[in-house]
Amino acid sequence: MMSDQPSDADERRAGRPVICYPNDTLPPFDRSFYLSARDGAELVTRVVADPRDAASFRVDAGQFFRIMSVDGPQVGDLNLWNAHDLSERFYSGKTRALHGTHVTEGERLWSSFPFLRPMATITKDTLGWYGMDAFGGSVHDVIGTRCDPYTGNLLSGSQYHHCCHSNLTRALADATDLSLAEAETHVHDVLNVFMCTGFTRDTGQYFMKASPVRPGDYIEFFAEIDLLGALSACPGGDCSAEHSSNAAACYPLVVEIYQPRSDRLAGWEPPQINGYDRSHGR
Questions:
Q1: Is the pTM for the entire model greater than 0.85?
Q2: 248 — phi, psi (to 5°)?
Q3: Is 265 exposed, middle or buried (0-12, 13-18, 19+ CB in 10 A)?
Q4: Is the pLDDT of residue 133 over 80?
Q5: I need a labelling partner for 144 at 20 to 30 A (CA). Which of 166, 177, 236, 242 fits?
Q6: pLDDT tens string 80-111
Q7: What are the tens digits of pLDDT across the range 140-175?
Q8: Are strands 227-233 and 54-59 parallel, antiparallel or unpaired?
Q9: Could you give the C-alpha distances from 21 to 57, 91, 98, 186, 241, in angstroms and in order?
Q10: Cα angle vertex 213, ends 209, 219, to 5°?
């Protein structure tokens, strides 16, 4: 039961919001550099994540990688790690705090503590036109986790093995020769590629709706460090109804990796790890 409102309830609600992490001091997005580097870049690798499954891929610092919809509307769950150190991984929560609930061109995917540096920069997003809809929904979220067998079991008693968490676990195990148990500890909250999501205005619950993605749409990144990635083609398909089942129509997702000409990267260097001294007051 809700408690009685105090007499100054309206006054308390009227407090103006303050952005927690103003990002205007972050290094600016150098569009001209990325455009120049991308121009004439050569396709070197093409990887397919099959429906209700995941694929791993490796991207060298200074390469571009593109995640593309093919055959039909499909969303994907993306994990990224430092290719040489799995303890440095994509930090969706800090990315959300710095850029917002959904990311698009010019924004970065940040790594976990104590590294906290850009792992990848979004250089092109063909769904950037979508913006924020009337329901508060937008595309490419960093608010959801990933569909997983534990929540499925909690809510319905199911034993479903092709949710994104399990798909990513298998893909990482195959890429690293880790056991499934070891690999699972490194699977983390995702970038929900192409997924259209938000929070309901009345209850604040996480919602999904049909993704606007269509074959040929893509999101493209510049790898700021050497990356190991895993991409799951979500069992929810376009996530218009449900996930963690075989009910939805599902389609593959493609990852393409492009190598720029060496002269286009002249003077560029991967970002250094965060400069905090880690003394923590001692």
A1: yes
A2: -80, 150
A3: middle
A4: yes
A5: 177
A6: 999 999 999 999 999 999 999 999 999 999 99
A7: 999 989 999 999 999 999 999 999 999 999 999 999
A8: antiparallel
A9: 32, 15, 6, 27, 34
A10: 120
